[in-house]
Amino acid sequence: MTRCNILLISLLLLATRPGSADPPKPEAVKPDVKPLLALVDGKVETEIKSLIGLYTHFHTHPELSLHEVESAAKIAEELRGLGFTVTEKVGGTGVVAVLKNGPGPTVLVRADMDALPVTEQTGVPYASKVRTKNREGIDVGVMHACGHDIHMANLIGTARVLTSLKDRWAGTLMLIAQPAEEIGAGARAMLEDGLFKRFPKPDYCLALHSDALAKIGTVRYSEGLALANVDTVDVTVYGRGGHGASPHTTIDPIVLASRIVLDLQTIVSREVNPTDPAVVTVGSIHGGTKHNIIPNEVKLQITVRSTKDTVRDHVLKAIDRICKAAADGARAPAPTVKVNLDEYTPSTLNDVALTRKTIAVFREILDDKNVIERPPIMGGEDFGRYGREGVPIFMYFLGTIPDDRFAESERPAGKPLPSMHSDSYAPAPEPSLRTGVRTMSMAVLNLMKK
Fold first, then answer.
1. According to the UniProt entry, where is the signal peptide (predicted)?
2. What is the pTM assigned to this prediction?
3. In a designed cystine with 172, which of 106, 123, 313, 438 is the match (CB 3.0 to 4.6 A)?
4. What's the CA angle centered on 261, arms 258 and 267, to 5 degrees?
5. What separation in angstroms does the CA of 294 have from each of 76, 250, 331?
6. Above 70 in pLDDT, residue 360?
7. Residues comprising the binding site for Mn(2+)?
8. pLDDT averaged over every residue in the chain
9. 3-class secondary structure, 136
10. Sequence ranges of the chain with CATH classification 3.40.630.10
């Protein structure tokens, strides 16, 4: 072989090596969203004024968990008018709306409806003035302090967009308005009432949640674990009452309950692996009626958060053990320790493949800097129950705070943002709804496109 031939072969081999001219890897291919996004944006523009009106209606007419009668009726009316087959009173006040549009996947979009027993202090013109009795018969204010009013208006906005673009997608669209998320009971009630048996079982479940700590135009998300297990524990500590001047003749349940509150803190600090997140918070302690009377009992209300089922089991057993051991040491009657399984909420685990597929679209819509991955948090959401039924789920978090307010909170000594459930939480309706309807509509179209 001549030297020229060797040189020619070497050049040919170099030309066929992988290099900058290689085709992009599959994960680097970006979805082409511009044609559909233009259609979605056009529809959002025509609907935004009406959607703000719906949001204001929901905000001024909040209803507590399991009492979402007016909210459910309004949503059912809106979706029925768009051509959905609507079933009401699923799992109590839940609404299921189904729209079949040829063969294809079934995609469920969920919004929750219930408000909180909070007296609003936002100062907005449409602030809630509603008052009612809670489950204990106590008079309380009622407020959408968790953004469920945004969720409901967003569901209707997404429905309007998708029904206007039926020629662009195929499959079955299933929209649900769920009750009682705030007490962890709504998803379970709807599932037990046949949500995935009486109606098509979805191939995918999507939801968004208002974010009180993120600015408008942004979304935040987590791959895999997003939200924690949530348990509610009620403890009644018993003693022997008597005169406050003669404590030696009593068994003081206030002292005993105080000891239990402190001892409970050792569960996370000394019993749980430091790499496994867990929270034990005593949120309420009630006992006694007068300065000089030692009562017969004290009641504790405890919330427990965990990310692993094994940790959850350990913490709940430890609470029972510590409460009973403290009572035994004080020669007091055994306390009652009740884990309220009706309000148990399992952790929310976002399906990784569905998350990545959806986030790729969001990055094209909002730009990379506005799509932010966040670590899991110890809050809870019963949306996770749908994932426990074997359906891939994805929940993302919608920024709702105006730019100037967010910037102020970032400054040294700036005014902090109110958290979810705060009486001062006031999302910016128009930009929040624009981003919410755009992202959710495009997420669905990405799963159901022809």
1. 1-21
2. 0.88
3. 106
4. 150
5. 53, 8, 16
6. yes
7. 146, 148, 182, 209, 421
8. 93
9. coil
10. 28-228+347-448
